[in-house]
C-alpha cells in the first residue's frame, strides 16, 4: 500500500515538474498574455494533467492505506520514501544535479524507514 502511494506521488511530482519546465516562466507568460494566458498555458499542458491525476491516485492510495494500517507508520513511511524516490527520479528523468549531501540525506531517510517499520 505504501509503495502505491510513493510511486504515484513520484510520477506526479516528476510529470508536474517536467510540465512546468516545458511551459516556462509563468511571470513572463503573464506579462505577455495576462493572467488568463498563464492559466491557459498550464491547463492546456497534457503532462501537467497526467501529473495531477497521478497525485490524485497517490492521495486516494493514502486514504485506502490509512483505512488498513496505522497512521504512525503509513504517513511517515510514505512521505520519507517519496523524498528518496523524488531524489532518484530527479536525477534520472529531470537530469537534476543531486549532490552528495542529498544522496546522504536519502540514505538516512531509508534507514529511518527501516527503523520505523520494525
What does this molecule look like?
- The chain has one domain.
- The protein is mainly α and 118 residues long.
- The chain has helices at residues 2-23, 26-43, 46-66, 71-92, 100-117.
- Helix 1 (2-23) runs antiparallel to helix 3, helix 1 (2-23) packs parallel to helix 4 (71-92) and helix 4 runs antiparallel to helix 5 (100-117).
Keywords:
118 residues, 5 helices, flat, mainly alpha
Tally of extended strands? Answer: 0
Report the end-to-end length measured between terminal Cα atoms: 17 Å
Number of helices: 5
Count of discrete domains: 1
Radius of gyration, taken over Cα atoms and rounded to an integer in Å: 17 Å
Report mean pLDDT, rounded to a whole number: 93
Q: Can you give the helix content as a percent range?
A: over 70%
Chain oligomer state:
single chain
Strand coverage percent: under 5%
Instruction: Report the principal-axis shape.
Output: flat
Question: Could you describe the largest sheet, including whether it forms a barrel?
Answer: none
- Give the class from helix and strand content and strand pairing: mainly alpha
Query: Could you name the ranges where pLDDT drops below 50 across 5 or more consecutive residues?
Result: none
Give helix and strand order, one letter per element, not per position: HHHHH
Topology:
Elements: H1 2-23, H2 26-43, H3 46-66, H4 71-92, H5 100-117
Helix pairs in contact: 1-3, 1-4, 4-5
Task: Please provide a brief summary of the model.
The protein has helices spanning 2-23, 26-43, 46-66, 71-92, 100-117. It has 118 residues and is mainly alpha-helical.
